Amino acid sequence: MSAVPGQTVGPFFHLGLEYDAMNELVPPGNPKAVRLHGTVRDGNGDPVPDAVLEIWQADPQGAVLRQPGSLRRDGWTFTGWGRAATGADGHYQFFTLEPGATEPGTAPFFAVTVFARGLMDRLFTRAYLPDVPELSSDPLLSAVAEDRRHTLITTREPDGLVFDVRLQGDDETVFLTYPRLRDAWS
Amino acid sequence: MESSQADINREIEAAAQQPGGPQPKLDYPSYRSSILRHPKQPPHLIDPESVELWAPAFGHRDVAVDEADLTIQHAGTPIGERIVVTGRVLDGDGHPVANQLVEVWQANAAGRYRHQRDQHPAPHDPNFTGVGRMLTGPDGTYRFQTIKPGPYPWRNHLNAWRPAHIHFSLFGTDFTQRLVTQMYFPGDPLFPLDPIYQSITDPKARDLLIAQYDHEVTTPEWSTGYRWDVVLTGTHRTPLESDIEETA
């Protein structure tokens, strides 16, 4: 069957996609909360103030929880999914838990989807945890050119895990496609 | 100098000579805002792993039943042509995507969004927000009541008008099926003029975004109706019984 094509999220997505605590997979005050944040930039290096990111992740034990409750947070249930829009400075942030490895010996990552005004279709990428020995044997990271590998790995800073997204240009983020999408990309 | 519609038409015509696939061209300069916002490197092909083989779950805890009626969110009745939009969400193999979240947003009947960045001087409707949410049923069916949105100007070029549309956000059963798109109405005269719609250069793929009028989904003496089925890309994982169970 032919898949329906995507279209840009447009300039007014806040109207339809925003809701309370959408970027708080855990409450910011949770002692185990980690801040995952960064800036989305365009081909000129300018911040993109109308982008929206979604993350989907395992819990710290590596379990893929399929719990409802992402739209009405109860402050307790960890659903593993959240959404954050960029502000006027192109910056976004999530409060979450660090994902664990879903299989022994693999490198944990956040699965990330990026949408923006001016971006015709959504983009997929990964944000790996830094400082994990398994990064060196990860099949994706090993297959990506060495000078672009860092675009997939968060950096640990005093104010959280940083994951910047560059839509175009120097340091363009590595975006992903999958076998069943391959033929659907232009 | 600001481009005219005639300039844009020429660009659309030229781009159509180099057809892309069934998805929009990310590099489509007649949508001016795409020029600096499309990746220039090809996407890296991988087999999905780990969480990518699963989609987030939503349930009745997340979405109230009345969120599927955009005409009852205020004290009064919104102005405009009352319509029902319904259809099924299917995966690329034709399996229904059950109990999954559908989010919609749209302009009002005058073509105005309830959003501070919308400066189009058409009237706001105090009785219309233009936001709905629903869960698909066991057979993948979604359904909502709304009013038909109007076309609106968007300053991509001089006197640029978007065809009337409703924004849709959809999830499948795995992460890779995530889709945000726009549903259009049949016979819109603005189709050939719109760079966003025309960024899909395959006409058959473009047609998949157009709902069909369906008298079967009208409500007598109340509303007209449109049907629009959404086929997502294929799953990378054999759907399990648990995918179609009620998770709420």
From TrEMBL, chain A:
Keywords: Dioxygenase, Oxidoreductase. The keyword Oxidoreductase applies. Belongs to the intradiol ring-cleavage dioxygenase family. Residues 33-101 form the Intradiol ring-cleavage dioxygenases domain. It comes from the Bacteria. InterPro entries: Intradiol_dOase_C, Intradiol_dOase_core, Intradiol_RC_Dioxygenase, Protocat_dOase_a. This is Protocatechuate 3,4-dioxygenase subunit alpha. The lineage of its organism: Bacteria, Bacillati, Actinomycetota, Actinomycetes, Micromonosporales. The keyword Coiled coil does not apply.
UniProtKB/TrEMBL annotation, chain B:
The keyword Protease does not apply. Residues 1-28 are annotated as: Disordered. Keywords: Dioxygenase, Oxidoreductase. Signal peptide: none annotated. Residues 85-113 form the Intradiol ring-cleavage dioxygenases domain. Pfam families: Dioxygenase_C, PCDO_beta_N. InterPro entries: Intradiol_dOase_C, Intradiol_dOase_core, Intradiol_RC_Dioxygenase, PCDO_beta_N, Protocat_dOase_b. Belongs to the intradiol ring-cleavage dioxygenase family. PANTHER family: DIOXYGENASE, PUTATIVE (AFU_ORTHOLOGUE AFUA_2G02910)-RELATED, INTRADIOL RING-CLEAVAGE DIOXYGENASES DOMAIN-CONTAINING PROTEIN. This is Protocatechuate 3,4-dioxygenase subunit beta. It comes from Actinoplanes couchii.
